[in-house]
Amino acid sequence: MGLEQDFDSGISVNDLKLALRGHVKEGYKFTSGQELKEGDDGYNSDPTLEDKVHVLVCVVPADAVSRLSDQMVKKIRNVRLAASELGIPQLAIITKVDDDCPAVKKDTSNIYKSKYLKEKVDRFHQQLGLPLNCIFLVKNYSDETESNDKINAAILCALKQMVMYGEDFLNDL
């Protein structure tokens, strides 16, 4: 379950804040409209470093960037602020770029050459306040039956940054 446009649907911002601090037990099933509270079965009252979030990654399909409501932006910013207060690094991945940009659909190596996608990244940067170098573009595997180096390069770049940011977070503790 992820964040949803409506105020009272999807995972609650408060539950995400609990997860950032490690207070959500492994395997807990989030329920829309029902927040986790101290004493609940899924609440971890004594989180270890292993239970805590080391990197916050926001994943949004490219076609949704221009449709994010003010309410959704507010939710994401609220979670980002909580992560910042905890020193947790933050990244964003904009997915399905090929579905949103014909030039990338034609040739995946155009991901970071596309002016259209650059505008999407700039808009997302303005909406959420994430640094531009923390927003990554990837094409999802959907119709492919074999591995593709061009698709893999963008995915691996984003994954590498997630791992590096997480290692930096742990090293700074």
What does this structure look like?
By secondary structure, the chain is mostly helical. It folds into two domains: 1-47, no CATH class; 53-172. The chain is built from seven helices and three strands, in the order H-E-H-H-E-H-H-H-E-H. The chain has helices spanning 13-20, 62-65, 70-85, 97-100, 102-106, 115-128, 149-172; strands at 56-61, 90-95, 135-137. Strands 1-2-3 form a three-stranded parallel beta sheet, with helices on both faces. Helix 1 (13-20) runs parallel beside helix 3. The radius of gyration is 17 Å and the shape is globular. The protein starts with 12 loop residues before the first helix and ends with a helix.
Uncertain residue ranges = none
Globular, elongated, flat, extended or rod-shaped: what is the shape?
globular
Strand percent estimate = 5-15%
The secondary-structure class comes to mainly alpha
User: Percentage of helical residues?
Assistant: 40-55%
User: How do the strands line up in the largest sheet?
Assistant: 1-2-3
How many domains make up the 3D coordinates?
2
Order of helices and strands: HEHHEHHHEH
The radius of gyration over CA amounts to 17 Å
Distance between the termini: 30 Å
Number of helices, where a helix is a run of at least 4 consecutive DSSP H or I residues: 7
Strand count, sense and barrel status of the largest sheet are: 3 strands, parallel
SS elements, strand count: 3
Overall pLDDT confidence: 93
